[in-house]
Amino acid sequence: MINDYSQRLVVQEVAPRDGLQIEPIWVATADKIALIDQLSLAGFSRIEAGSFVSPKAIPALRDGEQVFHGIARQPGVTYVALIPNLKGAQRALVAKADELNLVLSASQSHNRANMRMTREQSLAGFTEVLELARGTSVSLNGTIATTFGCPFEGAIDERVVMDLVDAYQRLGMQGVTLADTTGMANPRQVYALVRRVLEQLPAEALTLHFHNTRGLGLSNVLAAYEAGARRFDASLGGLGGCPFAPGASGNICTEDLVNLCEEMGIPTGIDLPRLLDLSRTLPALLGHEMPGQVAKAGRNADLHPLPPGLG
Amino acid sequence: MINDYSQRLVVQEVAPRDGLQIEPIWVATADKIALIDQLSLAGFSRIEAGSFVSPKAIPALRDGEQVFHGIARQPGVTYVALIPNLKGAQRALVAKADELNLVLSASQSHNRANMRMTREQSLAGFTEVLELARGTSVSLNGTIATTFGCPFEGAIDERVVMDLVDAYQRLGMQGVTLADTTGMANPRQVYALVRRVLEQLPAEALTLHFHNTRGLGLSNVLAAYEAGARRFDASLGGLGGCPFAPGASGNICTEDLVNLCEEMGIPTGIDLPRLLDLSRTLPALLGHEMPGQVAKAGRNADLHPLPPGLG
Fold first, then answer.
1. How many other CB atoms are there within 10 angstroms of residue A120's CB atom?
2. Which of A65-74, A79-88, B146-155, B299-308 is predicted with the least confidence, judged by mean pLDDT?
3. Three-state SS at A278
4. How high is the mean pLDDT of chain A?
5. pLDDT-derived band of residue B311, with 50, 70 and 90 as boundaries?
6. Catalytic annotation, pick one of A150, A242, A253, A261
7. Per-residue confidence (pLDDT) for residue B14, from 0 to 100
8. pLDDT more than 70, % of chain A
9. What is the pLDDT at residue B307?
10. Could you tell me which residue ranges the Pyruvate carboxyltransferase domain spans (chains A, B) (predicted)?
């Protein structure tokens, strides 16, 4: 444990993209816009608002243009779009995304399964995207999926991750995300890797993306925070499952993370009661319960009445 | 983060008592015995196997005598019984429990709600139990419920907890459990309190009992371990809910904790694959899904086949 919890923890909300993309039902464009607009008012500085991927690959997010066109952008909020390739980048620039998020996997086999190309081919494609973005105001973030383990290969050598961080820096990416794509990270591993990466990147350029697949998401956030990381992805309600494990959790839950921060005194700038109200609308919107815990249990401050006869 | 994770973490399995007591369906005595016997073979050194409470108060556990009589006791395993009062202690001694666990709450209002008496009355009752146990081989453990927060009162002053630790020591209890009864603890608070308590108690006399109500159970375990605590309660499958928050989790999940320890290199002595097999029998036994995550997601080592065409 460290002694100083006064440094702000920045939460990037990913429910509108990473959360919704796995949902089997269609969420109307107007509902997506309303969700993002509510998130924009809850204090987030970064929202991953959609993706520009083939509508055949991710039909749930095929309305990326309409969503980016329809949202009420708030000053100080960066609206991020996930893009897989040059075509997606062109669409995202037209749609005025503030930041493009590109993804490859540290694991060669996961990259082939997910992207149908090698890591080297992914990096070559990113070069074209960076050339397209040069001279515009858009910033670029490179995600390294399966940083902490691969569901096909198992452990990932830290040197592979460090080489990809190097490659992203050489390409000119402004930010790097280390993603625990299927929830295989543990706090000891996270602490060691984040310390190492922060020798090379400033904290404001590094995002950690944890999944709660094996119940360790928030423990990993704390380990990364202790190692100096300050920026974390999280998903409202814990929206977004794990394609490799039906019934298992995916993304860490935003309001559970913000609640943890509040209880520990870590500033986030996010309005937790407002966030809880919003999270509690998700089961009706999506037709199922969410994995998030604080929306069910309430905050510590939500006291219960004494049982009858004792009040 | 600390550097040394070589110290064994002792898990006390509580599913047969704390897990089952909240279940609405009746679990046959033979099934309870079979569960405990399987747990005895999985490497646990401590199992809370039942309670000797009024059958009207906890009908699910009204067969405590038959359970303790029927189990195949393994050498090196301590079988613990929860007891509320002298009458329960007399029953537990007849049933040959190895250890009696007594509970009061740090919060006066929670003690009144839970036990229908004041903390002072609870302590007076414990004196009678300790007198009964004197000269026998049975050991005594005192639990302090709501140590980290009370659902009626909110925050609990650390001095109240320290006074109760003192009172337990003066009574002659061999062990003390600090319980986060409704999942209100956070890692910063846990670290500070455990450090303080371990100035007064040896680590082998201290157990931490965390709930995962707000998703912080395993983070709290790690904070307590870093502060020097070595013994933790956990429940197979995460069995046992939270009476104050329908749908919320209760006890931390044993196999999720053991998985965390394995991934971080912390020895537990527990056979995780065997534990997972056992946990996966619970939904059929109890008629609902369990909150535990690793039983659904598998271990990191359970790799997935590559998608067709990439193998």
1. 12
2. B299-308
3. helix
4. 96
5. low
6. A242
7. 98
8. 99
9. 85
10. 9-276
* Size of the A and B interface in Cβ pairs below 8 Å: 151
Q: Do A113 and B1 touch (CB under 8 A)?
A: no
Contacts of A83 (CB under 8 A, 6+ apart): A51, A52, A53, A89, A91, A92, A100, A101, A102, A129
- ipTM topping 0.90: yes
Structure-token pair, residue A191? 């602490």
Task: Note whether B151 contacts A297, CB cutoff 8 Å.
Answer: no
**Closest C-alpha to B190, from B174, B175, B209:** B209
Instruction: Compute the nearest-CA separation of A221 from chain B (Å).
Output: 10
Q: Which two tokens stand for residue A175?
A: 């930010």
- For the segment B43-51, the average pLDDT, to the nearest whole number, is 98
Return d(Cα A215, Cα B292) in angstroms, integer: 8
Q: Which chain B residues are closer than 8 Å to A293 by Cβ?
A: 212-215, 248-249
Averaged pLDDT for residues B218-243: 95
Report the pLDDT value the prediction gives residue A249, as an integer from 0 to 100. Answer: 80
pLDDT of residue A2: 83
E strand or H helix that includes residue B139: strand B139-145
Q: Decide: helix, strand or coil at residue B300.
A: coil
The answer to whether the CB atoms of B188 and A216 lie below 8 A apart is no
CB atoms within 10 A of CB A306: 15
Question: Which tokens hold the place of B74?
Answer: 């393994």
Inform me whether the C-beta atom of residue B229 falls under 8 Å from chain A C-beta atoms. Answer: no
pLDDT value, residue A242: 72
| pLDDT one-digit tens code per residue, A111-170 | 999 889 999 999 999 999 999 999 999 999 999 999 999 999 999 999 999 999 999 999
User: What whole-number distance in Å separates Cα of residue B216 and Cα of residue B73?
Assistant: 33
Strand positions, DSSP E, A134-250: 139-145, 175-179, 206-209, 231-234
Q: Which of B273, B295, B259 is nearest to B42 (CA)?
A: B273
What 3-state DSSP class applies to A189? Answer: helix
Is residue B57 within 8 angstroms of chain A, CB to CB?
no
Biggest CA pair distance of chain A: 72
The crossing angle, in degrees rounded to 10, of helices A272-279 and A29-40 is 160
* Lowest-confidence segment of A209-223, B47-61, B132-146, B231-245 by average pLDDT: B231-245
- Measured between CA atoms, the residue of chain B closest to residue A153 is B303
Shortest alpha-carbon distance between residue A16 and chain B (Å): 22
Confirm if A97 and A46 have CB atoms less than 8 A apart.
Answer: no
Chain A closest-CA separation from residue B75 CA (Å):
32
Domains and CATH numbers, chain A: 10-297 (3.20.20.70)
pLDDT recorded at residue A54: 94
Mutate to test the interface with B, among A211, A257, A300, A303 (most CBs of B within 10 A): A300
Say what the pLDDT of residue A311 is: 61
**Residue B81 and residue B101: Cα distance in Å, rounded?**
6
The chain A residue lying nearest B305, using CA atoms, is A152
Q: Enter the tokens of residue A118.
A: 């090698």
DSSP bridge partners of B150:
B154
